[in-house]
């Protein structure tokens, strides 16, 4: 992979190689990617999404103009996907892919939220009653596995609780489409050939759903097939994308499995919504919005702690005071968590929770 990235800088590969932003190696990566963008040769059709994602993560004020240009190209592409009706409407796979690319970058989510809202609404309205999305191949509509997997992961990453039922139906259908002999999924229903993109995204959709504890055998078989499908050169192949991009997609999934939390509810759902609101306020800018973002972040941490208390029985903690109606508050919740971790041996005195004092100061200020 390091040799390939020298020949053709692929933005998605740098994080996988452990190259950190704001380091000399990260700066070299920016120079290489910007040079490829400037030359404009052999750029994939979705280059603007890769460039915007990469410059938001690795770039500096020097690349602000290029980042704005890439964001404008992404917006134009998404607006085009949102036009047309009936036979003139964009393919579900194209809409799901654009939304999935946006979901990987807070900058894209914030700057393109209107375009995202339009496409998300259009996507949900086109879902079939069985939970899948149709794609038309050679004039015949067929349930699309890749299209459904892309749409489902996009809704999981970008959507809110309104899409809970749509996501659940889609994941339930994807599970039934696994090829028994391989554990993989094809691109379209009825096909016999397993496909890397459909399988990778379907496995992620399952991991992010509330089915995850019921089908560990499905996940184990799908992951094993992905690993076995690696080429002798270390990559994976899936048309029409370049091998380097496909390798980045698969490796990112394999490396981040433990971060893919199942569909949440209760306190954890509120924590997610507060975090998203904080990101939105921060991106809008302005001193007042920054203060509101700080307040939303404190509430997000508070809700996360309460959700943790609910899910971790070994902590023996409750989000509520003895009256059963009043919650602890972020300061007391952090203190209770620290005491519980010391009690069960995760922390050993005089160890304390990292950054606890800073969190309490922020909470009091908010």
DSSP strand content: under 5%
Mean model confidence by pLDDT: 86
* Unreliable runs: none
Coarse shape: globular
Structural category: mainly alpha
Task: Evaluate the radius of gyration.
Answer: 22 Å
Q: Could you spell the SSE succession in H and E letters?
A: HHHHHHHHEEHHHHHHHHH
Biggest sheet record: 2 strands, antiparallel
| Residues in helices, as a percent range | 55-70%
**Quaternary structure of the protein:** single chain
What is the helix tally? 17
How many strands appear in the DSSP assignment?
2
| N→C terminal distance | 46 Å
What is the strand arrangement across the widest sheet?
A: 1-2
Written account of the structure:
The protein has helices spanning 2-7, 13-16, 24-39, 47-58, 64-81, 92-103, 106-111, 113-125, 145-158, 164-176, 196-207, 216-228, 243-255, 266-284, 287-311, 330-343, 356-365; strands at residues 134-137, 140-143. By secondary structure, the protein is mostly helical. It has a two-stranded antiparallel sheet. The mean pLDDT is 86.
Could you outline the blueprint of secondary structure elements for this entry?
Elements: H1 2-7, H2 13-16, H3 24-39, H4 47-58, H5 64-81, H6 92-103, H7 106-111, H8 113-125, E1 134-137, E2 140-143, H9 145-158, H10 164-176, H11 196-207, H12 216-228, H13 243-255, H14 266-284, H15 287-311, H16 330-343, H17 356-365
Helix pairs in contact: 3-4, 4-5, 6-8, 6-9, 9-10, 9-11, 11-12, 11-13, 14-15, 15-16, 16-17
In short:
With 366 residues, the chain is mostly helical. Helices cover 60% and strands 2% of the residues. It is built from 17 helices and 2 strands.
